[in-house]
Write a structure and sequence with these properties.
The complex is a heterodimer.
Chain A: E1 8-15, H1 26-41, E2 50-54, H2 63-69, E3 76-79, H3 85-98, E4 104-111, H4 137-142, H5 144-152, H6 156-174, H7 188-193, E5 196-198, E6 201-202, E7 212-220, E8 232-241, H8 258-271, H9 276-279, E9 280-284, H10 290-299, H11 308-314, H12 330-334, H13 338-353, H14 364-367, E10 372-381, E11 384-393
Parallel strand pairs in A: 2-3, 2-4, 9-10
Antiparallel strand pairs in A: 1-7, 1-8, 4-7, 5-6, 8-11, 10-11
Chain B: E1 5-11, E2 15-18, H1 19-26, E3 34-37, H2 44-55, E4 64-69, H3 80-86, E5 94-99, H4 103-114, E6 119-126, H5 134-138, E7 141-148, E8 156-164, E9 171-172, E10 181-182, H6 185-207, E11 216-221, H7 224-233, H8 244-247, H9 254-265, E12 271-277, E13 281-288, H10 301-306, H11 314-320, H12 339-344, H13 346-349, E14 353-357, E15 363-364, E16 380-384, E17 390-398, E18 408-415, E19 420-424, E20 438-449, E21 452-461
Parallel strand pairs in B: 4-5, 4-6, 11-12
Antiparallel strand pairs in B: 1-7, 2-3, 6-7, 8-13, 9-10, 12-13, 14-15, 14-16, 17-18, 17-20, 18-19, 20-21
Helix pairs in contact in B: 2-3, 6-7
Classes of the chains: A alpha/beta, B alpha+beta.
Chain lengths: 397, 465
């Protein structure tokens, strides 16, 4: 199987503040991230030869970007892959550059969620036979919690403490991030006491619904130093769409995302990572809901099966833990503008691995010599999802 | 020439409203006992499906379906087709509605006895009334179903049937009106008396019987006073409990429900007379056979009466019936099903038929063409799953999802013998759900959106002994 390792590099990035941007439209967000990204790379929009625009529902076709930036007949591909949309933009831009078709490409993601008038995610349903259950996203992901508790003999009250600690940790990190939607620490008592909205989940167990955009400039690895002294090399990119087996096959037990395991295995192979817990400096994972982050710790190989709940309680994934997870606050505190999230995760790798993260949330693992970061998305629900995993690093191997 | 009874069953919804709840809320009215209440996701059609499923267990497959209700979910469009589809009947089976009046219930049964092909008569009703009124208090919701003719043992022979028809104004409703209107009560008693006497006498004469030969008399009708008056003077020693204290008067369905209850209890060789007072009178005389002892409906009417859940709040009842408009969740309005995909998946959507891979045996819900396990393409056979039970693998209580009766309880169900399905739980107290709970499938009206009723299946808990 092939590999993207060290073929391309990210040489410029930008990310808007995430939040309820009542005063900004999709166009404003796109202008801010795209101009920020080219400035970061020391180039202009004219230097970008092709664009990949990820958005789940804030526009269709490449015109969504070209109209805003008044691009003169440039190739702009608009793509969507649920919550992995932003990462898909980066993946496709990377392949285009690696192929030699373009020298400089931009991956850009955007989502404008707060114009709908509803607090959660809203999308127009496809015409259907009306047989799909009308269950909300938090309810779908809440299915993980009782299944995990039952399988590993964790008392449900104890598991609630685990979930609360994940939310607490991500809020703690987000409080140290000026771009985050939620920039205050939240006490465990407050998190625990929130009214339940689905299963064991309260409002603090859910990611923020926000507007935002992020962008990256991708060039061939050998060209990277023309743009920056500190490029971020792409070590592995993997994306999978699962067979949607879990809601049909009784073998699935709702304590894992097989799609994530598959994507991680492939990305680690490309990157040459054999012990992610020991080798990665940090990970940005798709903590759409707190049980998701718990299960991901095992699916991504950061903890043995059945032990992630103990590792969470022990603080292994805290900002000062052995492997910091979501040091920027994650979807939980940074917010989750769907199309932008994957690139937002990459932006934190960009800051942390290159030593540019603000002092108050800088992770120690980089200074200790670790050079690799991971980003991860999943879209869908337990049982049927798409998943993306990337590994990036500051050193060529 | 009439056909014998070859199958029967009744369906009572899970919920009961204590009549005292009405008085507690309104400060007046109410009364003793309970009334059966169709859940927010039920209507006459969905309850009719449930009754027909019970009636058809062990009965001949019908060649005709008659559906009678005074509360049809659709006009213009045939509601019986939903029942036809849910039962998985062949396209050659005629399905028609006999709707509008409560009299249509007994009419459908009479017609079913007189056809020459096996015929299923389904009778159902959701009785409405304005808050505080007698119809709200005394009404009830239920369905019953009867199969006449076809191969298989006859459970009861139809000895005679006779009717008396006259045009008069007792109870009526203009299309779209939320409740019925009735003329002065004493007038109805005057009008019904002679009609009931005439029909009953004619039926007995046909059967060469006297009132004293009748083992049990069932009298039903929406005019309570006339019903009581006729029952008291008919000369039959034993009059059946009309169940109104426990479930209310279920209108179009009522004679059927009480008949099913009597059949549940009848000994072989018993003579049962049924007299229905509704815009005239109709009498039917049946005699049970030896086969009745071996083919009771399950669950029985008595079991369903006993298992009613009377924790329903009056305000919830009003909400379900559209008489109390509650603040909806801040979510987009639900959308109705689209016609073409619903047609393509008719066997699944209405009949809950999945597919089984003939290469590896994997069961798929919904049915698919490509096996999720062995990837074989188009090696599938039909997997009827509506009557298969399963167990809850995991579940959640969704307090955000749109529902007329939040919260939504959703569960992943693994069926006995294979197959997994995620769906809503019906008639459930969220606090009682546990992993491992046993469930069965039930046909429901999931939602009405965009003027379209969305019928599909939910799971409901099965009491385990």
């Amino acid at each position: 199987m092939g590999s993207i390792r060290d073929r391309v590099a990210i040489v410029g990035m930008a990310c808007t503040n995430f939040g309820e941007h009542w005063d900004k439209g999709t166009d404003d967000l796109l202008i801010e991230s795209s101009t920020g990204a080219v400035a970061s790379a020391g180039i202009t929009l004219d230097d970008v030869e092709a664009y990949w625009l990820g958005t789940m529902g804030s526009g269709v076709s490449g015109l969504t970007l070209s109209r805003v930036l008044r691009l003169e007949n440039k190739p702009v591909t608009r793509l969507e892959n649920m919550c992995a949309t932003g990462s898909e933009a980066l993946r496709n831009a990377s392949y285009a550059v690696a192929s030699g078709a373009y020298d400089v490409a931009m991956a850009i993601g955007v989502e404008k969620l707060k114009d709908s008038g509803f607090s959660g995610l809203v999308s127009a349903p496809l015409p259907s036979d009306g047989t799909l259950p009308e269950v909300t996203a938090p309810a779908k992901f809440s299915l993980l919690a009782p299944a995990y508790a039952a399988k590993y003999g964790v008392d449900e009250a104890e598991l609630k403490d685990v979930l609360t600690r994940i939310a607490w940790k991500n809020h703690y990190n987000g409080a140290r991030n000026t771009r985050a939607q939620f920039r205050k620490e939240v006490s465990k008592e407050t998190i625990n006491a929130a009214a339940k909205i689905a299963g064991m989940l309260g409002v603090f167990d859910c990611s923020g619904v926000s507007d935002g955009s992020a962008a990256a400039i991708v060039v061939r690895a050998e060209d990277a130093h023309r743009y920056t002294d500190k490029p971020l090399y792409v070590k592995g990119l993997s994306f999978v769409a699962g067979p949607a087996r879990g809601n049909i096959d009784p073998a699935y037990d709702f304590t894992t995302f097989p799609e994530v395991v598959a994507a991680a295995t492939d990305a680690y192979r490309q990157a040459g990572v054999t012990d992610p817990r020991a080798e990665l400096a940090m990970a940005e994972v798709h903590d759409c809901f707190t049980p998701t982050e718990l299960v991901l710790m095992e699916d991504l190989g950061f903890a043995e099966r059945g032990t992630a709940w103990k590792e969470v309680l022990a603080g292994s994934f805290d900002l000062d833990g052995e492997l910091p997870v979501n040091p920027d606050g994650g979807l939980k505190a940074f917010g989750h503008p769907i199309g932008a999230s994957g690139l937002r995760m990459m932006f934190e790798c960009w800051l942390q691995l290159r030593g540019e993260a603000p002092e108050e949330r800088r992770i120690a693992s980089v200074d200790a010599g670790r050079t690799l970061g991971l980003t991860h998305n999943l879209g869908g629900q337990p049982g049927e999802c798409v998943s993306f995993v990337s590994v990036v690093g500051t050193e060529l191997s | 020439m009439t056909q014998g009874l070859t199958g029967y069953g009744a369906y009572l919804p899970h919920h009961r409203l204590k009549r005292s709840e009405i008085a507690a809320a309104l400060g007046e009215g109410g009364g003793k006992g309970t009334r059966a209440v169709a859940s927010f996701d039920e209507d006459a059609t969905s309850m009719g499906v449930e009754a027909a499923r019970i009636a058809l267990r062990g009965a001949p497959t019908p060649a005709r379906v008659l559906f009678a209700t005074a509360n049809p979910p659709y006009l213009d469009k045939t509601n019986a087709n939903v029942i036809h589809a849910a039962l998985g009947l062949d396209a050659s089976v005629l399905a028609i509605d006999v709707v509008g009046s409560t009299r249509s219930g007994i009419g459908a049964v009479v017609l079913a006895t007189e056809t020459t092909t096996p015929t299923l008569a389904v009778v159902a009703d959701v009785r409405t009334g304005l808050p505080g009124g007698a119809d709200e208090r005394d009404g009830g919701d239920a369905a019953a179903a009867f199969v006449f003719g076809g191969d298989g043992p006859v459970l009861a022979d139809v000895l005679a049937q006779a009717s008396a028809t006259q045009e008069f104004l007792d109870r009526w409703r203009l299309p779209g009106a939320p409740a019925s209107r009735v003329w002065e009560e004493r007038f109805g008693e005057h009008a019904y008396g002679p009609l009931a006497d005439a029909a009953f006498a004619a039926a007995l004469k046909q059967a060469d019987l006297t009132p004293a030969d009748v083992d049990v008399l069932i009298v039903a009708g929406t005019h309570g006073r006339a019903v009581k008056s006729f029952a008291g003077g008919a000369g039959v020693a034993k009059v059946a409990d009309d169940l109104t204290t426990a479930i209310g008067n279920t209108g179009t369905a009522h004679a059927g429900v009480v008949l099913a209850d009597m059949l549940d209890r009848a000994e072989p060789g018993q003579t049962i007379a049924l007299v229905v007072l509704a815009d005239g009178a109709t009498a039917i005389v049946l005699r049970t056979t030896d086969a009745i002892a071996t083919r009771r409906s399950s669950p029985s009417v008595a079991q369903q009466v006993e298992h009613g859940d009377d924790s329903l709040r009056y305000t919830t009842f009003l909400t379900w019936r559209g008489l109390l408009t509650r603040e909806p969740p801040r979510r987009p309005d639900p959308t109705g099903p689209a016609a073409p995909p619903s047609l393509r998946t008719e066997h699944y959507k209405y009949g809950f038929v999945g597919s089984t891979c003939t290469e590896c045996g994997t069961i798929h819900l919904p049915p698919v063409r490509v096996c999720v396990n062995c990837k074989a393409i188009d090696h599938m056979t039909a997997a009827p799953m509506a009557d298969v039970q399963g167990r809850i693998v995991t579940y959640t209580v969704d307090r955000l999802a749109y529902s007329l009766s939040p919260p939504v309880v959703a569960a992943v169900v693994d069926f006995d013998g294979g197959g997994r399905f995620s769906c809503e739980l019906a008639d459930v107290d969220p606090a009682t759900v546990r992993i491992g709970d046993r469930v069965e499938m039930t046909f429901r009206r999931i939602v009405t959106a965009g003027g379209i009723h969305n019928y599909f299946w939910k799971a409901r808990k099965v009491e385990e002994v």
